[in-house]
Amino acid sequence: MDFTTFVKPSNGGGDGGGSDADVGGQKLQFWKHVEYIENHGKQEDDYEYCMTEFLRMSGIYWGTTALDIMGLIYCCVGFFSLTHRLHLLDVDKLGWWLCERQLPSGGLNGRPEKLPDVCYSWWVLASLTIMGRLHWISSEKLQQFILSCQDTETGGFSDRTGNMPDIFHTLFGIGGLSLLGHSGLKAINPTLCMPQYIIDRLGIKPQRLPRP
């Protein structure tokens, strides 16, 4: 930890080099994770501890470490939701770009010219839900795509139909189905990727825009 303190620049960046413009969401989240590790187990009753503990295991953590464009979009939208600053976003322009990720198969991709993937059923849907634009995509077609990626013999969801299921895509497949109101699933909070009843019990209220 002495080393990370030494190399951490005053502007909050991750490598000590470059300009302030180089400091993006990924580096910000990197240092948030460093702070989490430094404080792990010290303040278990604090709001910050509870949130970083869950974010470490949720979509925001995976968005900053496993994916690039779509994961970071979700991360940034989630940040504005947590800080109640969604008014700073051009939600119509961003929402339109996100809904254009839906392909004829019903699935969603992460950027133009890419294949659909079940994990984007969370990144894209959660962002659209936070911004009140979930109705801009075809819910029925997307549900059909997600369910086609389910392994009915061994359980779980894969990235695309016919592939091997895994925990990563199972989490986001079920999360996406919950956001779409699929029968039998409890509501999930789009900002924190947690069951909504837990968020309500904790009294946490991330911002979420109404449907226009």
Q: What this model shows, in words?
A:
The protein has 212 residues and is mostly helical. It contains ten helices and two strands. Strand 1 and strand 2 (194-195) form a beta hairpin. Helix 2 crosses helix 3, helix 4 (59-65) packs across helix 5 and helix 7 packs parallel to helix 9. It is globular and about 45 Å long. 34% of the residues are buried. Its cofactor is Zn(2+). Residues 71-194 form the Prenyltransferase alpha-alpha toroid domain. InterPro entries: PGGT1B-like, Prenyltrans, Terpenoid_cyclase/PrenylTrfase.
Topology:
Blueprint (H helix, E strand, L loop, with lengths): L1 H6 L17 H15 L7 H11 L1 H7 L3 H14 L8 H9 L20 H11 L8 H10 L18 H13 L8 E2 L4 E2 H7 L10
Antiparallel strand pairs: 1-2
Helix pairs in contact: 2-3, 4-5, 5-7, 7-9
Q: Fraction of residues in helices?
A: 40-55%
CATH topology call: Glycosyltransferase
Tell me the number of helical segments per DSSP (H or I, 4 or more residues long). Answer: 10
Q: What is the architecture at the second tier of CATH?
A: Alpha/alpha barrel
Q: Uncertain runs with pLDDT below 50, 5 residues or more? A: 1-8, 12-23
Oligomeric state, counting identical vs distinct chains: single chain
Count of domains:
1
The beta-strand count equals 2
Strand % is under 5%
CATH class: Mainly Alpha
What's the overall geometry?
globular
Largest sheet: 2 strands, antiparallel
| Radius of gyration, in angstroms, nearest whole number | 18 Å
Cofactor: Zn(2+)
Keywords: Membrane, Metal-binding, Prenyltransferase, Repeat, Transferase, Transmembrane, Transmembrane helix, Zinc
GO molecular function: metal ion binding; Rab geranylgeranyltransferase activity
GO cellular component, one term: Rab-protein geranylgeranyltransferase complex
